[in-house]
Amino acid sequence: MSESPPSLHPRKKPVQPRAVETYACMLEAAAQVIEQYGVGAFNTNVVAERAGVSIGSLYQYFPGKDALLIALMRREKERFGKDAAAALEASDGRAALVHLVGAAVRHQFERPELARLLDVEEARPEAEREVKAASNYRELLRATLDRPDLPPQPDPEVATDHLAALVRLLVDDAGARGESDTARLERRVLGAMLGYLNA
C-alpha cells in the first residue's frame, strides 16, 4: 500500500498576531533561501533555521517543503494581484494597460532571482493548479478590454488569454535574460499589446 503524497496546503492559517508574524517570517525565510541557494537546496530544515524557529513550529503550519513552496508562490501572486488591482482606478483603458504592464514588470524585477525560480516551479502541473486562483490578473485584463477607448475585440475572452500570455512571455523572457531597463521593457510590452488590439 503506497503512502499518499504530502498535502500541498498549509496545516492551518495563523490567527493570533504573533502567529501571523511567525508565518510571514517563515515565508520570507523560504524566499531568501531560494534566492540564495536555489530550489535544489530548499528544504524545511534550512528554512526553519533561517526563520529562527524550530522545525516543529514550521511543521505546525506546513506538512512539507512543497506546501511551503506553494504558500510562498501564493504570497507572491497575491502581492502581484494587489498591485495590479490599482488598474481598476485608471482613468481609461490605455492607462489601465500601462498599470497592468507595470505591475507585471515590477513583480518580475523587484526580486528577479526569486521570480525567475518560482516561474519554473509554477510550471509544474500540481503547482499551477494550486496557485492559479491566487492571481486576479486575467480578470483585471478582461475588465480593461471593455473600456470604451480600447478597440473592441471580436472575442474578448480569446483576446484576454492572448494578451495575458504575451505579457507573461515578454516579461519572463526579459527576467530570464537579466534585462535591467524596466522602462524600456514596459514600453515594448505595452506596444505589443496595443499592436495586438489594433490588428
Strand content range: under 5%
Total helical segments: 10
Q: What is the mean pLDDT?
A: 89
Summarize the main sheet: none
What is the distance, rounded to the nearest whole angstrom, between the alpha carbons of the first and last residues?
57 Å
Series of secondary-structure elements, N-terminal to C-terminal? HHHHHHHHHH
Account of the protein in words:
The protein is mostly helical. It has helices spanning 17-37, 44-51, 55-61, 65-84, 93-109, 112-122, 125-131, 137-144, 156-176, 182-198. Helix 2 (44-51) crosses helix 3 and helix 4 (65-84) packs antiparallel against helix 5. It is elongated and about 55 Å long. It starts with 16 loop residues before the first helix and ends with a helix.
Descriptors:
single chain; 199 residues; mainly alpha; 10 helices; 0% strand; disordered N terminus
Task: Please specify the SSE layout and strand pairing.
Layout lengths: L16 H21 L6 H8 L3 H7 L3 H20 L8 H17 L2 H11 L2 H7 L5 H8 L11 H21 L5 H17 L1
Write a concise synopsis of the structure shown.
With 199 residues, the chain is an all-alpha fold. Helix content is 69%, strand content 0%.
